[in-house]
Amino acid sequence: MTVTDTAPALLHNKAILIVEDETIVSFLIEDMLGELGCREVWQASDVSEALALLDTHKPDAVVLDANLSGQFTFPIATRLAQANIPFVFATGYGRSGIPNEWMSRPVIQKPFTIETLEAALRGLLT
Predict the structure, then answer these.
(1) For the residues of 70-101, what is the DSSP string, one character each?
(2) Domains within the chain, CATH numbers bracketed
(3) Model's pTM, two decimal places?
(4) Is the pLDDT of residue 95 over 60?
(5) Which of 64, 73, 86, 118 is placed for a possible disulfide with 124 were both Cys, Cβ 3.0 to 4.6 Å?
(6) pLDDT higher than threshold 70 for residue 74
(7) What residues contact 34, with CB distance under 8 A and at least 6 apart?
(8) Which long-range contacts (CB under 8 A, 24 or more apart) does 28-32 make?
(9) CA dihedral over 11, 6, 30, 63, signed as positive or negative
(10) What percent of the chain is predicted at pLDDT more than 70?
(11) CA quadruple 71, 35, 82, 89: dihedral sign
């Protein structure tokens, strides 16, 4: 099966939040999510912006960079866990950049393919 065969059903009518400080990477992920069939994509580039967005929106899942310009995103991860919103860390550090308390969460290492993103979201949403 290809991405386009399976993903649209999985992500149809889903809203995804991308928390990423690199604009080009955020747009690339947004494009991937659109190709995977997402209904809506929100973006935040820093911790305060992401937390404010979570005050008014409830995404179906979140793609969360672990480090935004030197600021770790673990306060966002805590909020997501408390709200039962599934998320995946997307980081250039891989698992080595994630503290022990978050090791049970899925991690995809940047750069990643659309297939890797799809597999991570499938794990979160099924």
Answers:
(1) TEE-HHHHHHHHHTT--EEEEETTGGGGS-GG
(2) 3-125 (3.40.50.2300)
(3) 0.92
(4) yes
(5) 86
(6) yes
(7) 41
(8) 29/63, 29/90, 29/117, 32/114, 32/117
(9) positive
(10) 93
(11) negative
